[in-house]
Design goal:
homodimer; alpha+beta; 6-stranded antiparallel sheet; metal-binding (chains A, B); iron (chains A, B); heme (chains A, B); TAT_signal (chains A, B)
């Protein structure tokens, strides 16, 4: 049998192709919108005019936040299993270099997958060898437990730099959290348009971290439920409704500054407490929200639309218009009843009901087999980035969990909050023993 | 905020668009290769010349076997929870009609997702409303327990039609099966290029089956590990190696007849026992194979290649050549040692070592979070179609589990065998109370 000439799975430069071109110089061309859209697309071959699917890892902010939401996610929360500050820094340095390489579509290490030396383990695991970069972004966050562990220990000498807002999320009404899906010292969000590329990235970070970091939990999401750019069509969640219509989009530059990025004035900077390292960063909230889809599927269309406050087909508010029409909560219909139920999801989640608070959401649909009782374990892996979780997430979730008609069909089973540092500056040298690394400001006095 | 005009996620006709065109007639054009390649692609608009991403549900054989392997799978095993033969037949009739609709990119039911009546549950759940058919195929199989349940009962009056080869798979060396991932009365393999379309299909079959069928277990696979057409590039598994190089391809028409489809001479037809209903069908073997990837990742490239018997980069046998060169097991190198280890995977799985037996494989990579011990729960969801599991699967797996060097890195955690009936004939009327349904011959005396 002979091999016919075959196109690669995606018509882009592959990892191996990139290696060959590396010597010719990789040119990154800025394509970011103004205001916080920090990602750029790089062309592997400076002479090729076609856009590639590479988002540069470096930039003022980490990629994977305002980057147009990719189709798939593999999210992992790691426990740091060393007590050595030097080893933690070494880990972050190695992870930064690998992240920068993998987001360019290169192997995780210099040697690559397959070219020896034969008597050592490969420094890339290989399953993404023939795949393009697929828009991979890797976004790192630090959890409260990295600063002070469960025993109250300051393992890494950074307890005094823990931001006041970085707390364990409070218990919300009807939470059904599973400890094995909560917390973690460091979170890594791997988003890509090919799930194999996202899984490959997390797996190689775990491989590199062996002895220093251990996967606490991870979650695969297969379908994005938010748009983060006006250039993207609004996707649907597993309730069958369009989700994220009023999400913060990267093009809303003022909203991104006001509601996503931690600003200089948010920091406390005293001798005892200094959180200035987080300026330019954000907070990442993750919630694994199981939907009781079998029950939902037996509710009427009228009830479903009442709960959401929008029509199922177009996503327009029940007060009329199209998907992007502002809901009119005052408008009443027959019997002087409001057209949008005040306990609907759209009414309770609206910024007007929450002191103007919005979030930049990046959620994904998940389906993790079944629960042993004949029901699919499926729902929403909620991810949101906010400047201030104390005003933009905690009160909103308290309201929704208590009053939202939708809550009857939701069960929160996983949870975490992480502080996401600013980006590794463009032009930094990564790798080696003195490379620049993500979150470096946290470790500099 | 106004909505900019946006392209749909895939540049194909959406479900809703299809509905509008249905009245104009849906023309199916045959595009199957000779010999068992039963799938056809339909154009929604007879005047449009562009190929669509629809595989017709009807045909001599079920689609989803020789169909070029799609990128994603959602596999579900159902328990039948009714004891009524009439209800089982009704279920199969309803499932057939829904499958035919969904594989065309239409909603699962006539009313669709979103158009009322408002006081009934929608007859489609909606999350695939804006997505194309995405190459969806739905393939149905009947397990041993459908014929005779755990208590030995012949619930549906079909025990005498159970093929002799349809048995519970034996215990293999080093099996670590979890009961909650094994068996099931009816299996449904949903393959599609968009995972949301595959999940949507299984979920709607579960919804339609409420009260008659209950999901016993299900498995999401995100990356195909086999090609079933010479037109497809060979993908990689989570060991980082190319997988399925010597898989049966649909273009091998004689091999497909000999090794995949159950032939008339395979049937027993006596008054007491009649398995002729399975002619034109196949047997589906599914195995959830966890890989100990953390251990694998710390083994040397030399060891990895020795275990597989091929090079990691090109997939060529260690006896030389390129990916599609036949391995030469007699060739020796230094010290007169064979270049390909006789205990390597390629040597033990080769047809020459197994009486000429081959399989048509359709496996997928899976990653299901972590195991609570800091390791990813990841591996291969193995799916194979064979004409005779007693010669083409059971002895091969016995050999591999006992002798294959690779077995050290594998743990089989899920398992099942199902008899896959022939296809619903092209031109059949489905739906209503007398529609043709998948597996109908099993219920006809």
């Amino acid at each position: 049998m002979t091999a016919p000439p075959e196109p690669a799975r995606a018509p882009q430069v592959t990892r191996r192709g990139l290696l060959g071109l590396a010597g010719a110089g990789i040119a990154a061309i800025g394509a970011g919108a103004a205001g916080g859209f920090a990602t750029a697309r790089a062309t592997e071959n400076p002479t090729a005019a076609a856009a590639s699917d590479v988002y540069e890892f470096t930039g003022a902010h980490q990629a994977g936040i305002t980057t147009p939401a990719q189709d798939r996610v593999h999210f992992a929360a790691f426990d740091i299993v060393t007590d050595s500050r030097e080893e933690l820094v070494e880990l972050l340095r190695d992870w930064t270099d690998a992240a920068r390489r993998m987001t360019r579509g290169e192997p995780a290490g210099e040697l690559g997958t397959t070219s020896g030396p034969y008597d050592a383990p490969p420094d890339d695991t290989g399953e993404a060898e023939d795949l393009s970069a697929s828009g991979l972004t890797l976004t790192f966050g630090f959890g409260p437990s990295l600063f002070t562990d469960a025993g109250g220990e300051d393992r890494f000498g950074i307890a005094h730099r823990k931001p006041d807002l970085l707390v364990d999320l409070p218990h919300f009404p009807a939470d059904a959290l599973e400890d094995a899906r909560c917390g973690g010292d460091i979170a890594v969000q791997a988003c890509a348009d090919d799930p194999q590329v996202a899984v490959h990235a997390i797996r190689n970070l775990a491989r590199i971290g062996f002895g220093k970091a251990s996967v606490r939990w991870s979650q695969l999401g297969y379908g994005r439920t938010s748009s983060t750019s006006t250039q993207q069509v609004t996707p649907r969640n597993l309730f069958g409704f369009k989700d994220g219509t009023s999400n913060i989009k990267s093009e809303e530059t003022q909203a991104v500054e006001d509601q996503v990025w931690v600003q200089p004035e948010d920091a406390t900077s005293t001798d005892e407490h200094d959180s200035a390292w987080l300026t330019g960063g954000s907070y990442l909230v993750a919630r694994r929200i199981r939907m009781t889809i079998e029950t939902w599927d037996r509710s009427s269309l009228r009830e479903q639309e009442t709960i959401v406050g929008r029509t199922k087909h177009t996503g327009a508010p029940l007060s009329g218009g199209d998907e992007f029409t502002e809901p009119d909560f005052a408008l009443t219909g027959r019997g002087d009843e409001p057209l949008i139920d005040p306990a609907s999801h759209v009414a309770l989640a609206h910024p007007d009901a929450n002191g103007g608070a919005r979030m930049l959401r990046r959620g994904y649909n998940y389906t993790d087999g079944s629960d042993g009782l004949g029901r699919l374990d499926a729902g929403l892996f909620f991810i949101a980035y906010v400047r201030n979780p104390a005003t933009q997430y905690i009160p909103v979730q308290n309201t929704l969990a208590r009053d939202d008609l939708m809550s009857e069909y939701l069960r929160h089973t996983g949870s975490g909050l992480w502080a996401v540092p600013a980006g590794v500056p463009t032009g930094s040298t990564t790798g080696g023993t003195d490379g620049v690394f993500v979150g470096q400001a946290l470790f500099e006095e």
